[in-house]
Amino acid sequence: MLLQQREQELQTLRCAQDEWVHAISHDLRAPLRHVLSFGPMIAELLQAQPVAAEELADAREFLQIMSQSARRMGGMLDGLLQLSRANRHVMQWQPVDIGGMLQRLQSDLSRRADVQGRAIEWQWPAQYPPVRADAQLLEQALQAVLCNAVKFTRKVATARIAVTVELHADQGWTLSIADNGSGFDSLRAGKLFGIFQRMHKDSEFEGVGTGLALVRAICRRHGGEAVIEARPGEGCVVSLHWPGGLVRGLA
Fold first, then answer.
1. H/E element holding 33?
2. In this structure, are residues 59 and 46 in contact, taking their beta carbons and an 8 Å threshold?
3. pTM reported for the whole predicted model
4. Alpha helices in 171-247 (DSSP H)
5. How far apart are CA 149 and CA 183, in angstroms?
6. Is the four-CA dihedral 27, 32, 35, 36 of positive or negative sign?
7. What average pLDDT does range 211-238 have in this prediction?
8. What's the rounded Cα separation, in Å, for the pair 26 and 46?
9. Euclidean distance between the first and final Cα of the chain, in Å?
10. Which residues are within 8 A (CB) of 67 and not within 5 positions of it... i.e. 6 or more apart?
11. E strand segments, the chain
């Protein structure tokens, strides 16, 4: 009886959280659309009035900041919504070919306009562990980590992204994705899994700080965990620890 009560309380809390996230992700979009719509209109009106050059320049700067802030808010809302969906997602357990999934994600990344022409060296393990997981969630987690690796190696002449797999005695495994990018102070690594937590300014690297929160949430839904290690200027390593109980044959 006590267990059922606790489960009911937990379900109630989840519903309340979902409602909160839904309100933020949807209701706030109306004023956001207004900001994005009226900004260009204000700019057009200012151009038609005899405004002093200095005031006009300031007005345009303010409008630019308003537009950037609104777009950033939109990205933050999208991140919250994606995180909420991952937490509410009904798990569909199935055999997953991690190697094939990673190769597809790398191929998709290589076709992006901001990646084409860059020198990126990819390293892959010879073998991957068979695993049962929710393919949709696992792909979202791997995509987020690979996108980060590509993004934060943008400023190095040759990016190196290495995927390694370590099998454990309990039949669990750890998949790590290492890069030689900008890195950060490892003492602050734990904060990166929080929502909207970032180590870099927007002027350095774009983002809103929900990617790693999504990665950790997905790992925990599978009974695993995600950790990150880094050093400033020496890149970072994101590791997904998978429990042994989920490793199965792919046949």
1. helix 29-48
2. yes
3. 0.76
4. 211-221
5. 10
6. negative
7. 88
8. 31
9. 40
10. 35, 36, 39
11. 93-96, 120-123, 131-134, 159-167, 173-179, 225-230, 236-242
Each residue's pLDDT tens digit, 172-207:
889 999 999 887 777 666 676 777 666 666 656 666
Rounded Cα gap, residues 153 and 145, in angstroms: 12
Q: What count of other Cβ atoms lies within 10 Å of the Cβ of residue 166?
A: 13
Strands (E), 135-235: 159-167, 173-179, 225-230
Question: Do residues 134 and 89 make contact, with C-beta atoms less than 8 angstroms apart?
Answer: yes
pLDDT digits (tens, 9 = 90+) for 80-100: 888 888 888 888 999 999 999
Examine the pLDDT at 70 and tell me if it is beyond 90. Answer: no
Q: Give the side-chain half-sphere CA count within 13 A for 126.
A: 0
CA-closest candidate to residue 184, choices 238, 144, 233: 233
d(CA 224, CA 244): 9
198 CB contacts (<8 Å, ≥6 apart)?
192, 207, 208, 209
Beta strand ranges found along 71-156 (DSSP E): 93-96, 120-123, 131-134
Pairing mode, strands 159-167 and 120-123: parallel
Task: Write out the two tokens for 125.
Answer: 């393990």
> What's residue 251's pLDDT?
31
Q: Which residue has the tokens 């009226």?
A: 38
